[in-house]
Amino acid sequence: MPLQATSGAASYDAFGGGGAAVPQYIEDVFSTWLYTGTGASQTITNSIDLSTKGGLTWIKGRSGATGHRFTDTARGVTKSLESNSTAAEVTESTGLTAFGTTGFTIGADADYNTSAATYASWTFRKQPKFFDVVTYTGTGANRTISHSLGSVPACIMVKRTDTTADWQVYHRSLANTQYLVLNTTAAVATGATRWNSTTPTSTEFSLGTDTTVNASGGTYVAYIFAHNAGGFGLAGTDNVISCGTFTSTAGGGANVTLGFEPQWILFKRSNSSLTANWWIIDNTRGWSLSATATGSAPSFFAESSAAESALAASLNSTGFKVDASNLAGSAPHIYIAIRRGPMKVPTSGTSVFGLSARTGTGANATVTGSAGVTDLAIIKNRGTNALSVSASRLTGTGYVVTSSTAAEVAAAVSELQANPWDVMDGVKVGTTSAMTNASANTFINYLFKRAPSFMDVVCYTGTGSATTVTHNLTVMPELIFVKLRSTGQNWFAGTQFGATKYSGLSLNSTAASGGGAQNTDYTSATGSNFNYGMGAQPTSSTFTIDATTLTNSNGNTYIAYLFATCAGVSKVGSYTGTAATLQVDCGFSAGARFVLIKRTDSTGDWYVWDTARGIVSGNDPYLLLNDRAAEVTSTDYIDTSSAGFEISSTAPAAINASGGTFIFLAIA
Question: Which of these, 160, 271, 341, 346, could form a disulfide with 27 (CB 3.0-4.6 Å)?
Fold first, then answer.
């Protein structure tokens, strides 16, 4: 019997007839998309269906002072409102000109598309348990308005569209007699005529007689947000939006636990006596998560047209933290937080991993090649003795080097541009650095997207005692790389096979596993090979770290890259060498595009091959992640195989020693 959606939204009961319910995921209903203006019509392709599903686009200029532009499908294209203004709706013929099934189109209006200016767009698609848009005409009398949220609204933003009026905001953390004003920094106010002193229900919300929400003959739009209502994920039980409250502490800031990693947050202090900004932050604009201090998030104020500024805050796998420097003492704050995507398990390697070979230009350039948002970029000079750069969107301009013990480096403009993550499908490199873009030098770029069952990036601060770190890989990690960011130290690299087996290595070293023994047994916590940074078997949501400098020194900051086997996409595995031709089956249908191999029972380099440089029947160039040496082009150590890759009989002991043990990561 097929799964059937129950009344209200995408939860599941497996009873009844009819068509099977279609799972919903956050990447289907919300997108943060960055773009650069062209001064001419351009289409933003963010994979959100607005034309048939309906929703809202919210656009803000980053590099200049422009208004926050709201355009929704209920009012129609070219119809714009500003959250930083009381102004009535205006028609902008060259503003947002079309809603599509995979995004939207903008014209040449300066607030949307000035040539060379940078912009952020946030798209909210209508979906039960997430977001709804309602328009109505006022009556001047107490009344109710129906909605299709399928759950009790947690936040409602109302704007009169036919004349000037303040934006009125209801939030579940306030009394039903209270309201906030989105276009000002004003404190919480009390007025029973906004919401008629009535809490919303799963089918309607109430209005009083105030002209800002219900003047006779006035026209209005309401944007309605859900709270922890489930409705998403394969089982239909996952939350993707939370509307809550937190209280800052004097001098201590605030740690907020959501139960998911957020990608977009709006918050405001909600005292009845203090003014405060409406902060907007997201994880796409390049979070400068400093190795030694609180992160710096590019941010906007919803009530202001000002260009982007910085907020001292950081994200983690279960919530976010706002530094005390942005919070005035002890005070309550309301927020809306949206879960990070994607939630869907990828089905193709090209959707989560891109690679490209290029020649340096000696001038600012954008490295692309990823089919989606790039979360991790590894760049290596192929022809000279140069370090490899490993940079992540979570750490902004900071990077670490795979072949070095050095602490994280704040990139010079010759290495990465000042805003390296302004591009969605890659990273912006600088001018003359031999590591990233020196003129006439050749480079290889590996671009990874975080996705369930494939790869995750986690930043954390050590505690100095055994503890667990939460991740969002959704399956047990099979390969983990950890680097101490705040000071110099070896990389930790660990692989997981079976229920209790673990292998500790160092990414910047040729050393064997754990002093010589592969697959150290978790159940035997004695001997020199057990404690190499990980203290217990990882799980689908956490990994455990020991009190070692490698992974968990008190107060120091770390970054971890987690990989797993994802059917048809990636394979983390091991093999035993034969000194003869050896087929490695990864379960792929068109071969591996990327192969990383390390010998574990004896010394051996971390070898890397890829199809951008050539995995063919002849010679195959390789690079070493643990060494700054130029690529070697004169060897034929691996060959093509539709199911994965083939180890050649000519491969040396470091790749195919008879009886030797090896680990690998392959990506289709």
Answer: 341
Radius of gyration for the alpha carbons in the chain, expressed in angstroms and rounded: 26
* Vertex 235 angle, CA 231 and 238, to 5°: 45
Report how far apart, in Å, the C-alpha atoms of 564 and of each of 483, 538, 596 are: 18, 12, 13
Alpha carbon of 467 to those of 444, 461, 541, 542, 563: distances in Å?
A: 37, 11, 13, 10, 20
Q: Is the pTM of this model over 0.90?
A: yes
For residue 331, tell me if it sits in a domain. yes
For the chain, report the end-to-end CA distance as a whole number of angstroms.
Answer: 35
Q: What is the pLDDT of residue 312?
A: 87
DSSP state of 396: T
Query: In this structure, are residues 452 and 343 in contact, taking their beta carbons and an 8 Å threshold?
Result: yes
Residue 299 near residue 277 (C-beta atoms within 8 A): no
pLDDT on residue 514: 64
- Residues 434, 467 share a domain: no
Q: Residue 195 gets which letter from DSSP?
A: H
Tens digit of pLDDT for each residue in 216-237?
Answer: 999 999 999 999 999 999 999 9
At 241, is the secondary structure helix, strand, or coil? strand
Domain that holds residue 610: 570-667
**Do both 420 and 392 map to the same domain?**
yes
Does any domain span residue 141? Answer: no
Does residue 422 fall inside a structural domain?
yes
Two tokens, residue 77:
């294209």
What CA–CA distance (Å, rounded) separates 334 from 311? 17
444 and 492: one domain?
Answer: no
What's the per-residue H, E or C state across 552-596?
CCCCCEEEEEEECCECCCEEEEEEECCCCCEEEECCCCCCCCEEE
Distances (CA, A) of 302 to 83, 235, 337: 6, 35, 15
For residue 162, the SS3 value is coil
Last residue of one domain, picked from the residues 339, 364, 396? 339
Same domain, 629 and 605: yes
pLDDT digits (tens, 9 = 90+) for 591-632: 999 999 999 989 999 999 999 999 999 999 999 999 999 999
- Name residues of the chain where pLDDT drops below 50: 1-18, 498-501, 515-532
Which residues have CB under 8 Å from 339's CB, separation 6+? 26, 238, 239, 240, 241, 258, 260, 261, 262, 263
- When divided into structural domains, the chain yields a total of 5
Same domain, 328 and 387: no
